[in-house]
Amino acid sequence: MINFTFNEVFNMYNVLTNIKSNSFKVNYWISRNLKLFKDTYIFILNERNKIYSEFLVADNKGLYFDMVGEDIYKPHYKDENPEYIKKFADKMEDLFGTDCQFDPYLIHPSVLMELDLSISLDQLMTIDKLFE
């Protein structure tokens, strides 16, 4: 068993869903781990949405955030009070910092390196706990 945080599970799930491979071995590795993490990923999304509903207001498009720069988002807080904003941040940190354990299907990183995958170093580092 390997210890993870919800943040790691969330990010790994997103990276795994974006890896495209022609290798049966890699696709099996992806499939097994996505299946393993799926229920927790959905749980995280549901809990995150509850926090959003509690602290944020959706705009007329149903979005809780405005994009103000590349990968920079500004939330629509129900209250701009700094204490309120801190409470939101604390709840989000508590959610994504929650610990869990899994027994993932591991693969040697050389298998991925041998393939011509379009995967960044950041993405590789995100899924490093899935390597043997």
Overview of the structural elements:
The protein is α+β, with helices and mostly antiparallel strands and 132 residues long. 55% of the residues lie in helices and 13% in strands. The chain has 5 helices and 4 strands; from the N terminus they run E-H-H-E-E-H-E-H-H. It has helices at residues 6-18, 24-55, 82-96, 109-114, 121-126, and strands spanning 2-5, 65-69, 72-75, 99-102. A two-stranded antiparallel ribbon has the order 1-4. Strands 2-3 form a two-stranded antiparallel ribbon. A hairpin with a 2-residue loop joins strand 2 and strand 3 (72-75). Helix 1 (6-18) crosses helix 2 and helix 2 (24-55) packs antiparallel against helix 3 (82-96). The longest helix has 32 residues, at 24-55. The protein starts with a strand and ends in a 6-residue tail after the last helix. The mean pLDDT is 94.
Largest sheet: 2 strands, antiparallel
**Overall radius of gyration:** 17 Å
Overall pLDDT score: 94
Binned, the helix content reads 40-55%
Q: Give the H and E element order.
A: EHHEEHEHH
Question: How far apart are the first and last residues' alpha carbons, in Å?
Answer: 13 Å
Lateral strand order in the biggest sheet: 1-4
Count of β-strands: 4
Please state the structural category: alpha+beta
Secondary structure elements and their pairing?
Layout: E1 2-5, H1 6-18, H2 24-55, E2 65-69, E3 72-75, H3 82-96, E4 99-102, H4 109-114, H5 121-126
Antiparallel strand pairs: 1-4, 2-3
Helix pairs in contact: 1-2, 2-3
